[in-house]
Backbone:
């Protein structure tokens, strides 16, 4: 069966890798958030696409949690000496991706085409798509005003309290064509919303024109894996954001966030006692080992989701 | 006294460094050729400005002859793996210069302003100026057609035989303002044409509108140091070009090239027997130790030129 995964960065990439390893090579399509993308020092930088791509290529730095394994920082150090901006960590090898992508985009290739070319060079066989070839930019509404996402996330290290989010360009952006075709494909057997940040990684994708309707009417069940386990986010600022938005920090808030959209909500086994308290209309709840530390964990979660979806077939 | 040096890359930078080390800090202005500049992978790259700047900063790789000492190549290797162009050697540290310069130029700063900013960060006290803030591009007329300079020089490694040169944009380019002011300055005591390639490093500067006239009418004597010693160029394709252009490969051809422009032609001590045969109207000939291997050699040549010019004062 065909499987579609919607992903942000690190957490989503882990599950995307698990799915890639247990599915036939042409079965999986990963759609990555591009609302984190930004222009920096003349480069077009696509952090979530890169994280997923590097993870699928097996060249990511799994200890640091982002970027490339064995990375060096000679350029960034030299840039610092020259008085340039160094708040965004540009590794020497990672830079090659930004240089080539920016160069190809300037030549007129679409982000989809550039992504395919980079994946091809890195021997990533899975289809990785940007959510859109049109620009969408996340702006974080903070106590002291609105910040572009990477300024909030990297430069300010998520310190400012958030009050909301705005996705500039989202209503004018066309969802990537293959993404929409797959949602209309009768052979689509499963949609997985990866354990990514619901507010800044998944909402930019879900809010693209026609995506919610396409998800509601697609042939496949929609699963969402909670990025919140207990009262913590496995990675990133999701829990902090929830608290600042006045929501209880728990998987239940994630379930509520996906109300009306998700058929099966997947929370961690350790939250089993909470499972019975979640009562969203039309939403089933299941538990699974969602904390992915090892490669085996990633494959195991992928297998659990796939077999659950297979068993649930009418 | 104020001194102006006109320079291309490596050979010129050596003498510029010698002059910088023996002159008071504010006495020297170096004007570098920018007709080798080019756009590559989205970067504005200025090879001669960088070579002079790195040399004056003492951070150049003197063994390799170009680029930065202690350079690494992680980005270029990664770019190669991604299928990007790797014919132009972009070191990781050097990249920082290209990134920052390109970024500042896009922000609207002039090449002069960007050069000053980079020199300031690298604690280069000498005034280093691009010959012009306007684009001039050397095109090499080769047997198989015209090649942009860096394609000829780096990608094709000077293999094609040359028939001539064209400096696109030269007649529309305004010579850098401080450069022209200095040529009109009564305190200017010496102009040195460094031992750079006469065809592709010096001619782009000399052919800018009004530069020849300004040199002819300036208060200072104009010295030119031959980049040809014996029948060889100390560095680069000058000798090969001469042969292909049908000129005898010797310092005499360089002297003839600078006819009517240079007051004192400086050839290497080892060419002393040739000195008497050079008979260009209005051109004196002197010999000096022009082969600069050590730092002391650079300083010595600078001292010889300065004291000769001092002695020759009316």
Residues:
């Amino acid at each position: 069966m065909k499987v579609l995964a919607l992903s942000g960065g690190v957490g989503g990439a882990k599950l995307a890798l698990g799915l890639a390893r247990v599915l036939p090579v042409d079965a999986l399509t990963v759609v990555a958030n591009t609302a984190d993308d930004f222009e920096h020092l003349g480069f077009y930088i696509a952090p979530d696409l890169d994280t997923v791509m590097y993870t699928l290529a097996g060249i990511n730095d799994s200890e640091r949690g982002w970027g490339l394994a064995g990375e060096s920082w000679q350029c960034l150090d030299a840039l610092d000496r020259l008085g340039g901006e160094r708040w965004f960590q540009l590794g020497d090898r990672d830079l090659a991706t930004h240089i080539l992508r920016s160069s190809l985009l300037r030549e007129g290739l679409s982000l989809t085409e550039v992504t395919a070319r980079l994946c091809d060079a890195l021997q990533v066989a899975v289809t990785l798509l940007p959510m859109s070839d049109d620009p969408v930019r996340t702006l974080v509404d903070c106590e002291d005003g609105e910040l572009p996402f990477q300024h909030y996330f990297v430069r300010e290290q998520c310190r400012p309290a958030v009050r909301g989010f705005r996705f500039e360009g989202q209503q004018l952006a066309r969802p990537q064509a293959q993404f929409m075709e797959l949602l209309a494909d009768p052979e689509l057997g499963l949609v997985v919303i990866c354990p990514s940040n619901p507010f800044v990684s998944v909402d930019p994708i879900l809010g693209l024109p026609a995506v919610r309707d396409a998800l509601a009417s697609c042939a496949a069940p929609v699963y969402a894996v909670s990025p919140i386990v207990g009262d913590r986010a496995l990675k990133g600022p999701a829990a902090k954001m929830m608290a600042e938005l006045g929501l209880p920090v728990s998987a239940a808030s994630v379930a509520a966030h996906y109300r009306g959209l998700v058929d099966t909500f997947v929370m961690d086994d350790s939250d089993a006692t909470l499972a019975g308290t979640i009562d969203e209309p039309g939403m089933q709840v299941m538990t699974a080992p969602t904390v992915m530390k090892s490669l085996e964990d990633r494959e195991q979660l992928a297998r659990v989701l796939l077999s659950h979806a297979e068993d649930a077939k009418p």
Remarks:
- The first helix of chain B runs from residue 10 to 22.
- The interface with chain A takes residues 41-42, 71-72, 74-79, 81-84, 92-97, 99-100, 102-103, 106, 117-118, 121-122 of chain B (CB under 8 Å).
